[in-house]
Amino acid sequence: MPSLTLTGKSLSFDWTITALSSAFNTSNYISAGVTRNTFTSTAGVASITGIISTVNAPASGSSTSVSASNVSLTPAGTYQLWAWARAANGLYYAAGTATVVIRPARPTNWAWTNTFTSGQPLNITATEWNNFCARINSFRAYKGIANYSFTTVTSGGAMTAAQANQARTAIQGIGGGAGGLIPSVATGGNINASYFITLRNELNAIT
Q: Which of 122, 162, 165, 169 has the most neighbouring CB atoms within 10 Å?
């Protein structure tokens, strides 16, 4: 029995149908693909709706699978899709179903409001820091990773080493080498201008 495999990406996905009953070529099939509308018929129907991707059968070949990459699908979210194969007789047959998580687009690069200068007082508001933490979570969502639970910084309070290190941990948690240059802030130690610059650069380096 055919089955469908889906791999979610940023505003797109890959799909593969495996275990077709015959080799995927024009002797046996016209095309195959996926639809967003429920389709479970194994008896064969003359038409279907909601098709979002189609691959035409090649003239020859012995593979019983077919696939497509980078199929656009918006908005971000979780979708259940259904596979179909159109046989040489012109009828459509169900070829499995699966669920896929479509990730959002890459967030825009972060830019601090103020210029950080070594040896000068740091001028960053609670709002800007909290917005920066929110941008980190946007990058985590883009990479398919759950939000990090940041401690909200309140106006008038001093930033702690623990709060600073949360940003480091959240960026490094994205993986793939993200945040590798961000140092740890020691309790009671200074948070230097270079720390904020490195945070920005390491976040924006995520592709």
A: 165
